[in-house]
Design goal:
The chain has seven helices and two strands; from the N terminus they run H-H-H-H-E-E-H-H-H. A hairpin with a 2-residue loop joins strand 1 and strand 2. It has one domain. Helix 2 packs across helix 7, helix 3 runs parallel beside helix 7 and helix 4 runs antiparallel to helix 7. The chain is mainly α.
């Protein structure tokens, strides 16, 4: 719960900073090159606020989004087929996101807004749960001080972290690429339309 509150406060504060920076940057044409990162920041904020993830993956979102946006800026051209491509990428990202949420639910336990990645039960934990049928895995984890290593084997926890990390990065990368690509195409299309409307110089 505490982590969720802090996260919402951070996103709210980040939104305020974003609006302020947007106003400042829009006032100075010489800083136009810096404005490209506003879109990446917006998509990162959007994904963090709508897609649950373990704490260790939060910072990874920024890395993936920046990498994706650099690729977008290098390869994007406002052609018709690319417009359809980005729509398909967003849809594909949402489908993969569904599978990610299913895996997240099966491979994690949540307490007070904090997501813990679980794995295969240790021998001691398995024996204890077999002798105490009413107790469930989540309750046992809470009673042991919420220490993953006391409930699950480290190898299985690391394996699940890799699976979740890979799926999360894939979702963020694909959806981020689709949204940023679409925004970039719209921006470049508007720029081309303005250039075409300018009267030819004599």
């Amino acid at each position: 719960m505490v982590n969720n509150v802090l996260r919402k406060k951070f996103i709210s504060r980040a939104s305020q900073i974003y609006l302020i920076m947007n106003f400042i940057l829009s006032s100075f044409r010489c800083l136009t090159s810096i404005k490209v990162f506003q879109k990446a920041f917006f998509v990162e904020k959007l994904l963090l606020s709508s897609l649950s993830c373990p704490t260790y993956l939060i910072n990874w979102t920024k890395v993936v989004i920046i990498a994706v946006y650099v690729i977008v800026l290098l390869v994007i051209r406002p052609t018709k087929w690319e417009k359809y491509l980005f729509v398909l990428l967003i849809i594909l990202g949402l489908v993969i996101g569904f599978f990610y949420l299913v895996e997240l639910d099966s491979k994690t336990i949540t307490f007070d807004g904090h997501i813990y990645v679980k794995g295969q039960l240790t021998e001691r934990a398995r024996e204890y749960l077999e002798k105490n049928p009413p107790m469930i895995e989540k309750e046992y984890f809470d009673r042991t001080g919420r220490e993953p290593s006391r409930v699950w084997t480290p190898e299985s926890v690391e394996k699940n972290k890799l699976i979740l990390g890979g799926l999360y990065s894939l979702v963020v990368g694909i959806i981020g690429f689709g949204i940023l690509g679409a925004l970039e195409i719209i921006a470049r299309s508007k720029s081309l339309m303005k250039d075409e409307k300018k009267p030819e110089e004599i």
